[in-house]
Design a protein that fits this description.
287 residues, oxidoreductase activity, acting on NAD(P)H, NADPH binding, globular, GroES-like_sf, ADH-like_N, 8 helices, Rossmann fold, Quinone Oxidoreductase, Chain A, domain 1, alpha/beta
Amino acid sequence: MRAVEVTALGGPEVLRLVERPDPVPGEGQVLVRVLAATVNPADVAARIGQIPGGPVPPPFRIGWDIAGEVVTGDGDLPAGIRVAGMIPWHLTRGETGGYAELVAVDADAVVPLPDGLDPVVAATVPLNGLTAHRALDVMELTGPTTILVTGASGGVGGFAAQLALKRGHMVLACATDGDEEWVRGLGVHSVIPRGAELDRPVPAVVDAVPLGGIKGDVVVATRPIPDDGHTLVLVEPDRDALRDLIAAVADGTLKTRVAETFPLEAAAEAHRRLESGGVRGKLVLTL
């Protein structure tokens, strides 16, 4: 099979297309032929070695999000069914990754795709959607309140804003310049320009950029901020939550967006595009 590997820590040029033996699924795993794999900032962080636990020695593979077709499976995941899921990269640390034609993944890490849902769209959901879901769970809010979501133009922030609305909260959302209309279209109660000063603290904050320095009774962030007093949110596999997220995207009650697609062999180009900034939506590798 073809796969993209990180051959050294560094810039996008270290991503190389290689030929490797087809993976063999272990007990409790399914073999998935990948149709789409999302390019995330976490992939860039792994490529340059700036990840929790320290850098992974090359060569290794990257990619958390996949959507594809089961080649070898059983139970509710028979061969031929289309699925989407998350490779727990923080645990596998490059042993496997979504930038490949085939991946062996735990069966409880993927869910079937509803009929008609584009795998490219589905691939944008697992990592960002589950991170947003986890952020709201960690807050342990006892009732509806006001939540400020930073980075609502992005993947995690966009999902966090929408999921908070579904839970009955009032959502204030920070949007990047030029993305105010898209964020407003998520149904939030107020859109705040990025960098705007708030006149008072808010009860709860999902700092999805993260900006740091934002005051609230409860503050969760998706990346470490030194001495900021926030709670760091790390994604956790949750098949039931993933099934609900995918179903909501399929029926249109949860929005996601794809900025651009790239073939697998153009993974380095996709990384350059992501690092150049100004990407509105997710970049997805297609196979």
